[in-house]
Amino acid sequence: MSSFTLADLERIIAERAATADTKSYTASLYAKGIGKASQKLGEEAIETVIAAVSRDRQGVISESADLLYHLVVVLGISGIKLGEVLEELERRTAQTGLEEKAARGHD
Q1: In angstroms, rounded to a whole number, what is the distance separating the alpha carbons of residues 99 and 1?
Q2: What is d(CA 52, CA 58) in angstroms, rounded to the nearest whole number?
Q3: Distances (CA, A) of 17 to 43, 48, 51, 55, 104
Q4: What is the spatial distance between Cα 59 and Cα 71, in angstroms, rounded to a whole number?
Q5: CA nearest 72: which of 90, 55, 85?
Q6: Any residues with CB less than 8 A from the CB of 91 and at least 6 apart, and which?
Q7: Is 13 helix (H, G, I), strand (E, B) or coil?
Q8: pTM of this structure
Q9: How many CB atoms sit inside 10 A of residue 56's CB?
Q10: Per-residue confidence (pLDDT) for residue 106, from 0 to 100
Q11: Which parts of the chain sit beneath pLDDT 70?
């Protein structure tokens, strides 16, 4: 089991986003803005779904890593800390999924 955490990923992304390194993919995504970063997030989500439906285990692992990376980039560009998302998940898991879904009032 890896000791690498999403908090580690968030820290690394923030560090790389703050650089002017023209070879940094992360810095280039930040420079292109939320539109491009969101587009990449969507592409990775689709690729993850395709791998899952295809029962491509290694593909799901690889695409999920890309998906998580791009999600943390979008959160960072949006000024949202990963901890805020985790707090929301914690709040939601304090009740059953069906109760939580009903409380939101939509599917």
Answers
A1: 33
A2: 10
A3: 21, 25, 29, 34, 34
A4: 18
A5: 85
A6: none
A7: helix
A8: 0.86
A9: 13
A10: 64
A11: 97, 100, 106-107
